[in-house]
Amino acid sequence: MYKYVHGGDVYSQNGNFIDFSANVNALGMPKAVKDAIRAAANSCSAYPDPFCRELTAKLAEHWQLAAGNILPGNGAADLLFKLALALRPKNTLLLAPTFADYEKAFATAGSKFSYYILKPEHDFAVQEDILKQIVPGIDLVVICNPNNPTGQLTSKKIILDIVKKAQEVGAKLLVDECFMEFVSEQEAYSLKNYLTEYKNLIILRAFTKTFAMAGVRLGYLLTSNVGIIDACRENSQDWSVSTLAQAAGIAALEQKKYLERTKIYVEEERSNLLAVLSKLGIKTFASKANYIFLFVPQIKKFPDKLKAKGFLVRKCENYVSLNANFVRIAVRTKTQNRKLIKAIKEIIANEVTVNHN
Ligand SMILES: Cc1ncc(COP(=O)(O)O)c(C=O)c1O
Question: Which of 3.40.50.620, 3.90.1150.10, 3.30.70.1030, 3.30.2350.10 is the CATH number of 256-356?
Answer without folding.
Answer: 3.90.1150.10
